[in-house]
Amino acid sequence: MLTIGELAAYAGVTVRAVRHYHAKGLLPEPERDHSGYRRYDAGAVVELIKIRSLADAGVPLARVRELLQADPAEFATAVAEIDQRLRAEIRQRQRHRERIARLAAGDSLALPPEVVEFLDQLRALGVDERIVQVERDGWIPLAARSPERVQELIARKRVQITHPPLIDFYRTLSEVLDRTDSDPMLIELVDKVAAYLTQLADEQGDDYIGGNIEPSLVELLDTLAFDTAPPTRRLIELLNEQGWNGWTELVRMDPK
């Protein structure tokens, strides 16, 4: 006969685990002997090893009793169900790991890969990190609110970012952030941007400039841009004088 410590050692578990299995009703708890100790026989060792093996395989303790009492066919069915559940949990954990990896990448927090790639393109072009932040913060609510539009809009951005006038706009805008509202560079930048927008609209159509984003989202994105880079407010005022209105959703105004 074995003490609880010896039983635990034979089965490769802790005494605490044995007591836990007693409490769950998985392992019968023997009566105490005349010395006040519980003594276990060889059958308890076998049962405990079975319980440990099932638990180590990922079987929930709530189902261990069922499997211990099952016939071969029932056991096989139950194991298949448990295996299916474990596979689903593994897939879910893998998705969690992928998301953790994206979070560690900085911009990947709440942003799809294609947007992150575009932001990296801006950095490679030498665009100021503050401008990249404006872009990033704008894409986050857009991707959350209208995920189905991301592919279309980012594809358009990829094409536009190859145009020298737009590249020049991004680079010059970076310099403008540290200048006053009356700086001649700001006026020059607006002239270039207005000319570029007009040419693009004439070639591709006015809808190509905007994007048809819902008004409430446009307002939110504009506010984000203004808060992150205050000079953008002045840019909009100057663009307005050149016949363009808006920031997130640029609109060509009818000539007066």
Summarize the structure.
The protein has 13 helices and two strands, in the order H-H-H-H-H-H-H-H-H-H-H-H-H-E-E. By secondary structure, the protein is mainly α.
Sequence stretches where pLDDT stays below 50 over 5 or more residues? none
Strand content: under 5%
Structural class: mainly alpha
Alpha-carbon distance between the termini?
Answer: 103 Å
Q: Strand count, sense and closure of the main sheet?
A: 2 strands, antiparallel
Describe the fold and architecture.
- With 256 residues, this protein is mainly alpha-helical.
- 69% of the residues lie in helices and 2% in strands.
- It has helices at 4-11, 15-23, 42-56, 61-68, 72-104, 113-124, 129-145, 150-160, 164-176, 184-204, 206-209, 215-228, 231-241, and strands spanning 244-245, 251-252.
- The chain has a two-stranded antiparallel ribbon with strand order 1-2.
- The mean pLDDT is 81.
Topology readout:
Layout: H1 4-11, H2 15-23, H3 42-56, H4 61-68, H5 72-104, H6 113-124, H7 129-145, H8 150-160, H9 164-176, H10 184-204, H11 206-209, H12 215-228, H13 231-241, E1 244-245, E2 251-252
Antiparallel strand pairs: 1-2
Helix pairs in contact: 1-3, 3-4, 6-7, 7-12, 9-10
